[in-house]
Amino acid sequence: MTSIDKNPVAPRVIVREAAAPRPRWQVWLIRPEVVTLLLLVIAAIVATRLSPFFADLGFILESSTYYIEFAIVALVLTIVIISGEIDLSPAAQMALSACLFGTAFKAGAPIPVAMGVSLLSGLVMGAFNGFFVTVLRLPSIIVTIGTLILYRGLAQVLAGDKSISGFPGWFVGIDYRMVGIVPVPVLVFIAASILLGLFLGITIYGRQIYQIGTSEIAAIHAGIRVRRIKMGLFIASGLTSSIAGLMVASRLGSVRYDLATGGELTMVLIVMLGGTYIFGGRGSILGTFLAAWLLVIIATGMTVANIAINAQLTIMGLLLIVSIIATNAIYARSQR
C-alpha cells in the first residue's frame, strides 16, 4: 500500500518589509522644477563670473526681451504637451500672423484693424491644426510639421523677400516701454505665467488636461470632453502665437516672412528644460517659467562670450536632448 503523508509541508510565505517612505527633502529634490531652479542658480553664478553685467538685474531684464515672445508661447505649449499632444508650428504662425498684420496695414487698414486681422488669423490657424488632430485623428507632430511649412510658405507669398515697415511710432518699440525697470513684454510673460499656472493648478479643466495626458482612454470613460479640450488648446496656441508675432513686429519695427525662424527649437527647449514630460501627463508652468530665465542667461552668456551662432544652435540642440533624457530619468526615479 502507498502511504499518504497526512502532514504535508506548508508552502513558505515570504513577507517583504515595506520600503520606508523617502524624506520630504528627497521627494522635493527630484522634482524637475527644483532641478531647473538649481541649474538657473548655477548658470547665474557662472554668468556673473563671465561678465559683471549679469549681476545687474536691469541687464538681464533687457536681454530677456529677445526671447520673451518665445517664452510666452512656450507657456501654452507646455499645456499642449501635458495633454499628450505637441505643436511645432507656433513660430511659423507668428510669422504668418505678423505678415498678415503688415499686409493689412500696407493696404491702408488702421493699426487696430490690422491687429484684429492678425489675431483672427491666429485663431484660424490654431483651429486648422486642431481639426486635423481632434477630428481626423492624425498625429499632432505630423500635422504641425506640415502646417509649419504651410504657414511659413504663405508668409513668404504675402511678404516676399522684403520687409514691411512704416508702422506708427506708438506701435513700435514695445521692448523699450518700461514699468520701473521691467519691460512691458516681461510683465506680460509674468502675468501669463501666473494666470496659466492658476488655470492648470486649481481649475477642473487643468486637472482634466493632466488626466487626458496620462490616459486619454480613461479620460474619455470618465466623461471628459477630450476633443473639445484639445481643440481649445490648439486654438489658444494659435492665438498666443499671433500675439507674440505682433510683439515681435513692435520690437523690430518691421515684419518679414522669416520672422521667428528657428523658434520651434527654442520653445520646445524651454518646455523640456522646465521638466514637462514629452509624452504628456506631467509638467508645470512654474518649470517653464524658470526654464525661460535659464535660457535667457545661457543664450546671453554665449553671446557675451562671442560664441558663433552655429555653435550656439548646436549647444541648444544638445541641451534639448539632455533635458528630455533627464526628465525621463527623473520621472522614472520618482515612479520607483
Tell me about this structure.
With 336 residues, this protein is mainly α. It has a single domain, classed as ABC transporter involved in vitamin B12 uptake, BtuC. Helix content is 69%, strand content 2%. The protein contains 14 helices and 4 strands. A two-stranded antiparallel ribbon has the order 1-4. Strand 2 and strand 3 form a beta hairpin. Helix 12 crosses helix 13. The protein starts with 23 loop residues before the first helix and ends with a helix. The mean pLDDT is 88.
In a few lines, what is going on in this structure?
By secondary structure, the protein is mainly alpha-helical. 69% of the residues lie in helices and 2% in strands.
SSE inventory with pairings:
Blueprint: H1 24-29, H2 32-50, H3 57-64, H4 68-82, H5 90-106, H6 111-135, H7 140-159, E1 164-165, E2 178-179, E3 182-183, H8 184-202, H9 204-214, H10 216-221, H11 226-252, E4 254-255, H12 263-273, H13 285-304, H14 309-335
Antiparallel strand pairs: 1-4, 2-3
Subcellular location: Cell membrane
Membrane topology: Multi-pass membrane protein
Pfam family, one: BPD_transp_2
